[in-house]
Amino acid sequence: MTPWYHEVPEGRWTFNALRLLPTGSTSFEGIQGRGYTVCLAGKPIGSLRRHTNAGWMTRIHGFEWRVLPEMGSARFHIKFTRTRLFPTIKEARSSVIHVLASRQILAQAADNPPTPSQEA
Description:
Number of domains: 1
Structural class: alpha+beta
Helix content: 10-25%
Distance between the termini: 26 Å
């Protein structure tokens, strides 16, 4: 049976996101200081939006961020959330690039499952 999620240190990917999202280079398109669309191989897969003066609200389709103790959601004992707030755009971009890199590694592993050992 196929698992629903594949976990990485930052959160977890849904199985369908690993299967359906394109692979390729990451780009950020938008208006400086207001918001950006996260594109993978030219297709939009997420967003970075300015959230008042608190920081940048980040969302990637098919990915759920792990809730950290300093996040507001932690007080409700939530383990994962679809959006995450970063204080600076630099942190948000680097985290998105890191998460998308983990997705490509998981997708390659899913395409090439290990072969079962030959036991006699």
